[in-house]
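Most newcomers find our protein records easier to grasp once they have seen one. A record pairs a protein's sequence with a compact description of its fold. An example says more than a description, so a record of this kind follows:
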Amino acid sequence: MRDSRHVELTTAGRVLLEEAPAALAALERAAERARLAGEGIAGTVRLGYAPTAGFETLGAILAAVEHDTPNVTVIASELFSAEIPARVLAGELDVGVALHPEPMRGVRSEPLRREPHVALLSHRHRLAGTDPISLNSLENETLLLFPRELAPAYYDRIIAAFEESGFERRVVSFADPPPQAMLARLQAGHEVGLPPASLGSHAAGAGSGLIARKIAQPGIVGEWSILWAARAPSAAVERFLESARRCADQNNAAALAETNQRRTRSP
C-alpha cells in the first residue's frame, strides 16, 4: 500500500513475506531430493525377505546400504521364499532375499552367501552331548521342517542331503509360520530342527533350553540369493544391489578366512 509519504505492505503481502523463506527452503529441499534420487543416492526400495534372513543376512545388507547410501529408504516385508519371485515380477517388490528361490522368467538373481545348517534340539535330547552331529546319527530321529510349499527348492535340498547319506528320514512339518513354531515344538525334546546357523545360534542363546550343534561334513548348506526384476531397475535399486554385493564379498571373504584358520589349527 503506497501514499505520498510511505509504503506499507498489505495483509496479504505480510503473509507472503513471512511464508516465503520457508517455501523457498522447501523448494530447495525438493530439488535436492530429486537430484539425489536421479543419482541413486536417494529413493525408496521395497524389499521382501525370507523369515530366517532376519537373524543375520538381512541386518548385514541393511547396514551396508545405510553406510553407502543413507538417503535410501528401505521398506522391508517378511515373506516366504516361494512368494518372493512372483512379487518381484509383479512389481510389488523391488528386491528380494530368499533361500533357493525358484527360477522365474523376468526375474534375475545372484547368489549372496552360503550358510551352513545346524542341528537344533532340546538340551534333554539324546544327541545333545554330541558335537558335531553326523547325518547318519539322525537316521532314527524325527526331523522338524517347514512345509515344503513355503520354499520347495530349499526343502528339497535338505531332503537330498539325507538321501545322499543313504537312509530314509522321518519328517514332520509345522503348520504355523516359522521360525517361532519350530522353536516351540523343539522344546518338547523329541524332534530335531535343521535351521540355518544364524537362527540356530540365536535360538540356542535365548535361554530357550535348546542347543545348536554343527553338522559334520558333508553337512547341509543353504544358499541365499538376491532377486530383482529383469526390467531396468531404478538408480536406488542399483545402489542397493551394489551394497548387497559388496556386503556379500566381505562376508564370504571373512568366512573363507575363518575356515582356513580352522584348518591351520587342525592337527
In short: The chain is about 40% helix and 25% strand. The first strand starts at residue 42 and ends at 49. The CA atoms of residues 121 and 175 lie 19 Å apart. Confidence is low (pLDDT under 50) at residues 24-32, 256-267.
